[in-house]
Structures are given as C-alpha cells and as structure tokens.
Design brief:
This protein has 280 residues and is of the alpha/beta class. The chain folds into 2 domains: 8-174, Rossmann fold (3-Layer(aba) Sandwich), CATH 3.40.50; 184-275, Orthogonal Bundle (ProC C-terminal domain-like fold). Helix content is 55%, strand content 14%. It contains 12 helices and 8 strands. It has helices at residues 15-26, 42-52, 60-66, 76-90, 108-114, 149-160, 173-182, 184-201, 206-226, 231-238, 244-254, 257-278, and strands at 8-11, 35-38, 55-57, 69-72, 98-101, 122-127, 137-143, 163-168. An 8-stranded mixed β-sheet has the order 3-2-1-4-5-6-7-8, with helices on both faces. Strand 4, helix 4 (76-90) and strand 5 form a beta-alpha-beta unit. It binds 1,4-dihydronicotinamide adenine dinucleotide and (2S)-3,4-dihydro-2H-pyrrole-2-carboxylic acid (A1CAB). 1,4-dihydronicotinamide adenine dinucleotide binds at residues 11-17, 38-41, 44, 60, 73-76, 78, 82, 102-104, 127-130, 182.
C-alpha cells in the first residue's frame, strides 16, 4: 500500500481508532512518528503509546495542530462537546485540514455547523465496522463538496488500511451502509451463536460446535468470493432433493427467515436515520 505523505491525528483513542491506527502502521501507510492521538483516558493513551509508539496527548487541540488529517473517533454522545471545545480552542486552524468522522449517525452538516470557525471545512463521513480490527473491515464513505480529489485519495488510503472501502455520492445512503455492514457483524455473530446452540442441543460439545460453525461460515464466504456463482446458486448446490438441507431450508422459509433479516436491517436503517435527525 502506498505511503501517505500526511500526518494523521485521532480524537478519541478507543476501539475503532485502535483498529485504524493498527491498520495504518501494519500496511505501512503511515509511520508511528506521523500518527497522533488524544483521549480523556490516561490508560488508553498509555496503551496506544506502548502498543504503537505513536504521539499521545490529553489535549485535543494539540492533535489538531500536529496533523494534516483529523479523525473524529469519539462516541456520538460526546461529539457535541468535543466539537464545541475544538471550535473555541483551535477551530480556525482546522480550515486547511481534512476531517474524517466515523461517528454513527452524525451528519456532515452537523460537523460543519459545530466547527463554524473553519468555514468550507472538508469533511469525509465514514462508516467502518469492527472487522477493521483484523484488517478485514468494510467501510462506506461520503465526501462533502469541499473535499478535493487529492484529499479523497488520502481518506481512501487511510480507510483502506483496515479493509475495503466503497464511496457514495449521497450521504443519506450511509444509513443503509450502517444497517448492512456497520451493524452487520453482529447479525453474523448472532447467527453463529444460534448454530452453535443448535449443535449443542444435538449432542456436540461447545468447542466442536463452534469450530464446525466457524469453519463452515469461513468456507461458505471463501466459496462465494472465489467462485463466480451467486449465493442462490451455491445454496441450490448444497440442497439435494428430498435431503437434509431442504428440510432445514423449509423451516427457515416457513419461519420467514428472509423477511426477518430484511425487517431487522430496515429497523437498523431507520434507527440510523433517527440518530442523524437527533444530531442535526
Ligand atoms: N463499534 C462499532 O461497531 C462502530 C463504531 N463506530 C463509531 O466509532 C466511534 C468510536 O467508537 P468506539 O471506538 O467503538 O468507541 P470507544 O468508546 O471504544 O472509543 C471512544 C474513545 O473516545 C474517548 N473520549 C471520550 N470523550 C473524549 C473527549 N472529550 N476527547 C477525546 N477523547 C474522548 C474515550 O475515552 C474512548 O477511548 C463512535 O462514534 C461509533 O459510532 C463506527 C462504526 C462501527
Ligand atoms: O450500533 C451502533 O449504533 C454502531 C453503528 C454501527 C455499529 N455500531
């Protein structure tokens, strides 16, 4: 992966920031000396410094001053206070920088509005997911009109260090991204939990049931990736007429499994929209 000739600063050094910092360093996109992070937790800062050898501070404005690209990686609930402090303390100094926000449900307009002393701010809103922690993330991104094509490339380079990136021209689609891939790992974990429980109910011990389920999910994913066949075609190949898979799929259909999944994802999308309106 190409090296980024930029310094990157993180406000909030929690799980997602850790995943992104780890990805940037592992992929060689940035050197540790060019990464800064601020957090209110001294323990987090000590952990990040020891683990990655990056610059750490308790002062959010010091990170702004030390970076070309600022990643906002705090929880949505504290974003308001973080942004108003930044705006008062170092807002005008943000105007030449690229801001990437990964907070769920906070619209670009809100970020721009709260950092009003940096008019024309270039903001990328991104929605990553937790497999970023192992370099296998899926991230949707939207760039506001102030983001130059060079900065779009920089944002992509930073986000691609932890996995795949798809860019959207319409910010509203990030609600769908949040519902499908942002929250998506949780649906897969839930499905795995249910498969393991089913195995246990049928007499398998937990360790074996988990190992079998995990390898099955991994194998199915690899099959979908490596063969040019649709999930439907691959499903049909497992399903022998009058056989065991058919018996299981009949129950899934009768219990409206596809509708349940679709309704659940629609609920996540709706919630993402509600959160966005809440933070406008
Ligand atoms: N967990 C997930 O699956 C996903 C999370 N996100 C978003 O990523 C963002 C970060 O989430 P996580 O890393 O999971 O949260 P986290 O709670 O692990 O990290 C947030 C960090 O911000 C720090 N912090 C709190 N107040 C601060 C302040 N005033 N100044 C500086 N740092 C402060 C906290 O000490 C904490 O270390 C959230 O906005 C979330 O919506 C996005 C996609 C997926
Ligand atoms: O549950 C949430 O709201 C966040 C956004 C996507 C994953 N976690």
């Amino acid at each position: 992966m190409a090296k980024l000739d930029k310094t990157v600063g993180f406000i909030g050094g929690g799980n997602m920031a850790e995943a992104m910092i780890g990805g940037l360093l592992a992929a060689g996109v940035c050197e540790a000396s060019r990464v800064h992070a601020a957090d209110v937790s001294r323990d987090r800062l000590a952990y990040l410094k020891t683990t990655f050898g990056i610059h750490t501070t308790g002062d959010n404005c010091a990170v702004v001053d030390g970076c070309d690209v600022l990643v906002l990686a705090v929880k949505p609930q504290v974003m308001g206070s973080v942004l108003s402090t930044l705006d008062a303390g170092c807002g005008p100094r943000l105007s030449k920088k690229l801001v990437i926000t990964i907070a769920a449900g906070i619209p670009v307009q809100t970020i721009e509005g709260m950092l009003a002393s940096a008019p024309g701010l270039a903001v990328v809103r991104a929605m990553p997911n937790t497999p970023a922690l192992v370099g296998c993330g899926m991230c949707g991104m939207y760039a506001n009109p102030h983001v130059t094509s060079a900065d779009r490339g920089h944002a992509r380079a930073i986000l691609e260090a932890t996995g795949r990136v798809i860019e959207f021209e319409t910010e509203a689609l990030l609600d769908a991204v949040t519902a499908v891939s942002g929250s998506g790992p949780a649906y897969v974990f839930y499905f795995v939990e249910a498969m393991v429980k089913a195995g246990e109910n049928l007499g398998l011990d937990t360790k074996d049931a988990f190992a079998m389920t995990l390898q099955t999910v991994k194998g199915a994913v690899t099959l979908m990736e490596e063969r040019g066949e649709s999930p439907k075609e691959l499903r049909q190949k497992v399903t022998s007429p009058g056989g065991t898979t058919e018996a299981a799929l009949r129950v899934l259909r009768e219990k409206e499994f596809p509708e349940i999944v679709m309704t659940a994802i629609e609920a996540a999308c709706q919630r993402a929209g509600e959160l966005s309106r809440q933070y406008v």
